[in-house]
Amino acid sequence: MGRLTDKVALVTGGSRGIGRAVARRLADDGATVVLTYARDSAAAEETVRSIEKDGGRAIALHAELGEHGDAAALWAAFDAATGNAKVDILVNNAAIASSSDLTALTEEEFDRVFAVNVRAPFFVVQHALGRLNDGGRVINISSGASRIALPGVIAYSSTKGALDTFTLNLAKVLGPRQITVNSVAPGIIDTDANASWLRGNPAAWERSAALSTFGRVGTPEDVAGVVAFLASDDARWVSGRVVDVTGGSSL
C-alpha cells in the first residue's frame, strides 16, 4: 500500500508539465487523482491512461480558470464526477506566464495573469472548504521568481508573491482543522511551457543549468517529489512555508 492510499487529490492544470508529474506521483503513492485541464484534452486523457496503466486511479475534468464563476464550476464538475467525494489533497498548479516587463505590460495582460494565478486558487480553496477533510493538505505551486528579482516577468513574479502570502494566511485559517498549507517554488524546469526558449537552445540551456548549484535544469519529477512529501503524513508538522525547489538557484 502507498502512503496516500484511500486519499483523494485534486490537481489543477494536471495534464502537462509539473502538474502531470504531480498527478502521476500522487497516483503512484496510492491517491485517487482528479486532474483538470483548460484546453489540451488529449494530454489530459493521455495522463489518465498512463496513471491507469501503472495501476493507479485518475479522472480528467475540463475546467477553465480565470473568469468569475470558474471555481464554482470546477467543483460542480468534481462533485458530478466523483459522487460528491471529499478531498484530502488540493494542489493549485494551474497558472499562466507573463513575459512582459513593466513598460510593455498592458492592463489586460495584468488582469489575466492575476485572475488565473491568484484569484482562481483563492476561490478554488474557498469553494473547497466544505469538501476538504480535516488533516488534509493544500499545496500551492509558486515559483522561485517570488524571491529572485526577474524584472522581465514582473507581473508573473508578483502573482507568485501574492500566492505565497495567501499560503501563509491560509495556513493560519486551516490550522485548527489540522490542514497544512504550503507553497512549492520551482526554478527553471524542463517543461513544454519552456520549450520554445529552452529546448534546442544550447546557450539558454547552459545559462539555466548554471543557475543551480547542481549545474543542471530541473525536471517536473524534481518538483513532484517535494509535493508528494508535503502531501504525506511525514509533513504533518510543516505549514505556512515556501519550500524552495530551485535546485539552489541564485543563492
TrEMBL record:
Keywords: Oxidoreductase. It holds the Pfam family adh_short_C2. Residues 7-191 form the Ketoreductase domain. SMART domains: PKS_KR. The keyword Oxidoreductase applies. It comes from the Bacteria. The keyword Oxidoreductase applies. Belongs to the short-chain dehydrogenases/reductases (SDR) family. This is NAD(P)-dependent dehydrogenase (Short-subunit alcohol dehydrogenase family). It comes from Streptosporangium saharense.
